[in-house]
């Protein structure tokens, strides 16, 4: 069996295991986005309403369910580092599967996140001035103590979990012809693209990144993973570099048909659009994929489109600024 088919089988198998712990998020029809291009219809996959507030629960449940299925793996325990959606997802999944998990968070992580993580029963260690230090420490601990390191994206089993977003889109919309996805480390798009190409080679996958942090886009252009400094962006969920040797590079290179880069102004407008049009709160990372479609809609005539709205965690002050800016 070819590797694509095998990947799809693994996605379908893991979905049976993890779906009882997930919401089947809606595909919301958007009349305004649909009207941007003749004969196209646009649906927004609301992973921003997924349990823990993002698609990340899928990857964490996938990885931890696999760890929990083996007493040997489970007894090693797991460790991760994140200040955001991945941490919340891991806290949720570790409680469900009874996997002992240590979580390294950078100093200055928001109090509300810490209290949510504690509520979810997370074992927290605050370490380092930013997430990179927390990550290095978590990897160190995994090596010294033999714990399993759970990467937010650089892990095939995490990618298989994220791919279940694609499975749900295809099940509900079998005639989908293009899917827009925000990209950071590439776990979400890598999994989703591999799954959808295995099922229907003709579905177009569009990778979307902010102009301030577009490492995967530049890497695919260069034909290898590159290092590029990231600037400040509203899309904090996708911001940052990609680890050397990341398993997400090849699917991004081989299965993503097109890349769109968006400005901060476009991200902010699309966050406001979701609130104004649909009364939905989304974070900047979700705004990236919506903005990418808005920017290039005229190229998608006659398409049936799904845009993944990947998360909702935006701070009240950032959202307040966006509202003030766009309703002035
Ligand atoms: C809301 C949100 N969207 C997108 C991403 C990027 O996902 P990936 O690193 O799998 O590309 C993240 C990563 O943390 C995220 O939190």
TrEMBL record:
Residues 18-311 form the Tryptophan synthase beta chain-like PALP domain. It comes from the Eukaryota. The keyword Lyase applies. It is an enzyme of class 4 (lyase). It catalyses: L-serine = pyruvate + NH4(+). The keyword Lyase applies. GO terms for molecular function: L-serine ammonia-lyase activity; pyridoxal phosphate binding; threonine deaminase activity. Pfam families: PALP. Its cofactor is pyridoxal 5'-phosphate. Its EC number is 4.3.1.17. One of its GO terms (biological process) is L-threonine catabolic process. Keywords: Lyase, Pyridoxal phosphate. This is L-serine ammonia-lyase. It comes from Capitella teleta. The lineage of its organism: Eukaryota, Metazoa, Spiralia, Lophotrochozoa, Annelida.
